[in-house]
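User: For documentation purposes, I need each entry recorded in a consistent format: the amino acid sequence on its own, followed directly by the corresponding structure tokens. There are two entries in this batch. Please keep commentary to a minimum and don't merge the entries.

Assistant: Recorded as requested. Entry 1:
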Amino acid sequence: MEGYLCCVTGELPKKWVDHLSSAKLWYNTKFHPTTRMTPFDALYGYPPSMPKITLQGDSLVEAVDYTTKTREQIPKILQHNLRKV
């Protein structure tokens, strides 16, 4: 979790507390190969409902646009790469 917070806060390391809830969500919904489930699954017995974030049109922040477009492409890239194997 410390590594995640370091990456998220970047040049503002003293703002880590602002990102703690995101870090908690990330950790609790991350698949762990040892348990073969997420910590949320292990605790509650079912997968968490994840919020679906969609943007209408382009964002005024270039990094948000890039991230949104990249996330949309990841499943397509994964499927393409898996077909090669």
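Entry 2:
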Amino acid sequence: MKLVLRFLMVVSGTALIVIGAQSCSTSVPSKTTVVVVHGAWGGGWAFREVDSILTSNGYSVYRPTLTGLGERVHLAGPDVNLSTHIEDVSNMILFEELHDIVLLGHSYGGMVVTGVADRVPDRIRHLIYLDAFLPEHNESVMELADDAAWIEQMTRGDLVVPLWVNPGQPPPKDEPHPLHSFTESMVLKNQAARDIPGTYILTVEKGVDASSDDFAKYAERARMRGWKVLQLEADHNPQWNAVKPFSEMLMGIVKTSVQ
């Protein structure tokens, strides 16, 4: 299925992006903070090129890696779950003293940013979901995936092993993903998070009907919330295969959100 193929292509690049504005005195703040957090199997390394473009345009960029993945693979363990990843990003926002931010999640990252928004809604100006899961209360990745059987086929104990990674492949590379981040259901308690405005970016490959896209249903959820839905001609990994148009679209959303 397309979802399976897209996950196999994307997982190292699934991501979150948090964008913060310190001042709104101009159309584009002089100091805007962008935090990029990957999703399943990946690491912050996957968004280096986007980081470079945003940095050259005056943004301050963070790319934290979720527990048990990327350079933090040595922290993998059976207790790592969705809540752990939500705490990773929430604590980064708190300890870095970030305010007035725009928070973006890519693919699995949509699960994480949803939880972060529920934890620290007062720190967030705008939400962006990039071809991402947009969960409601009590939903998990395993429940939302059109076909979770392929995840089960890759599961080895408490880890979902990326079979596309060659033995001995040097880093940066995809790493086994904590299974419990897929099976744990989202817990949402803070109604204030529902009031945060958002934008959904649906990536659609050339020649493909957008309505048949695996993430189209989440774009529709966003539309039902009154959010703007944008379409980007790209595969599930615009941070690699459509870097410039994706970065320009992202900066355009940020500029609008701080005006």
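Summary note for entry 2:
The radius of gyration is 17 Å.
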